[in-house]
Design brief:
This protein has about 350 residues and is an alpha/beta fold. The protein has 9 helices and 7 strands, in the order ββαααααβααββαββα. Strands 1, 2, 3, 4, 5, 6 and 7 form a 7-stranded mixed β-sheet that branches. The structure holds iron/sulfur cluster. Iron/sulfur cluster binds next to helix 2.
Length: about 350
């Protein structure tokens, strides 16, 4: 299909761009997919909630990992282990100081704020120590925490035109439902282009290295790998990176900026288990077909925002609870279950 050709010619991209136009980030797209009402509270109404211990731990871990790898780029070696641990501890405390701490998290139940902060610091230190010894030595970082912004307007219009051509082919082949769906998608693409949105974000780690650089007389080929560090309480599934919308978005941005699809993308999971920290990397790749799916979701997200009609998640979704949703108390769609006494003999 024509619409699956390379995305490069019609995308304009900027590295390290400041906010210039309306921007959609991967966190917003994911939140919109999970619960439209949560997105409305957070991004349309601007209502922020305090981060919980898990998020503060992620902030501390990211900061320490970035500092460690930045030192590797600048000076050719990692920081001392103690320095990495100190950076993680300070970053967690600073994050709590600046953003507050939500104590509704299950791990915080019945504990004081100081206890939770102490446990979070210890956890972040455990995780970065594992990254420092098990992951960082073998990475070949080129850029760390690199921001990007991709302008979509022209690309969306080109894609809309191709969708219309495909729709006509489908219609002529007798497949009127597929034709209608493609027409609808073309309309959403044009509508998204008129709104003038950019897709923006930040890559954690970009690795660039020469394949075969250890073998004499073998032609060298530059490889591009995008990595994101994740903290987790449980071992991720084997296909976690394959399913990741975040990595799909990062691949699209890398293709626009570097002119080639990344050779690999990875989620570096640091899993905090009772028996110790487990390192569980999950690798994947993306193709132009994956790019097409990502752009369809992006166009859909822009049109949902434009319409102002946001859909609540299912009431039995685990996220729709006091423990997992910071908007539960004020959300008109939150379930309010009440236990009632039912007399099973009443109907007899
Ligand atoms: S309470 Fe449920 S429906 Fe409301 S914002 Fe939270 S997850 Fe969405």
């Amino acid at each position: 299909m024509k619409q699956h050709d390379s995305i490069v010619p019609d995308l304009k991209s900027i590295i390290g761009a400041d906010k210039l136009r309306k921007q959609l980030h991967i966190s917003g797209i994911n939140m919109l997919n999970e619960c439209g009402i949560r997105f409305e509270f957070r991004y349309i109404l601007g209502m922020k909630r305090k981060p919980n211990a898990f998020l503060h731990c992620g902030t501390g871990t990211d900061k320490a990992v970035s500092s460690d790898l930045t030192n590797k780029i600048d000076k050719g070696e990692l920081l001392a282990e103690k320095d990495v641990q100190d950076i993680a501890a300070s970053a967690v405390k600073k994050s709590v100081e600046e953003n507050g701490l939500d104590l509704l998290d299950e791990d915080a139940e019945g504990k004081s704020k100081d206890d939770v902060v102490g446990e979070t610091v210890d956890k972040a230190v455990r995780l970065v120590t594992a990254h420092h010894s098990k992951v960082a030595p073998s990475l070949r970082p080129k850029h760390i925490s690199r921001r990007f912004s991709v302008t979509l307007d022209r690309f969306m219009r080109t894609r809309a035109k191709l969708y219309r051509e495909d729709a006509e082919q489908m219609f002529n082949a007798g497949n009127k439902y597929a034709a209608k769906m493609l027409e609808g998608q073309a309309t959403r693409m044009n509508s998204a282009a008129r709104e003038g949105w950019d897709f923006a974000g930040e890559w954690d780690i970009i690795e660039q290295y020469l394949d075969g650089d250890l073998i004499e007389n073998v032609p060298l080929e530059e490889k591009l790998v995008i990595r994101d560090t994740k903290t987790s309480k449980k071992t991720p599934s084997e296909d976690e990176a394959d399913k990741s919308t975040q990595l799909s978005g990062y691949a699209v941005a890398a293709t626009a900026i570097y002119g080639k699809t990344p050779d690999a993308l990875a989620l570096d999971f640091l899993v905090d288990l009772k028996r110790g920290t487990e390192y569980a990397p999950r690798f994947t790749t993306r193709t132009p077909d994956d790019d097409a799916v990502f752009f369809n979701r992006l166009a859909n997200a822009v049109n949902t925002i434009k319409s102002g009609i946001f859909t609540p998640t299912k009431p039995d979704d685990w996220r729709c609870s006091k423990k997992w949703c910071g908007y539960f108390e004020v959300c008109p769609y939150a379930k309010r279950p009440k236990s009632v006494l039912v007399n099973i003999n009443a109907a007899e």
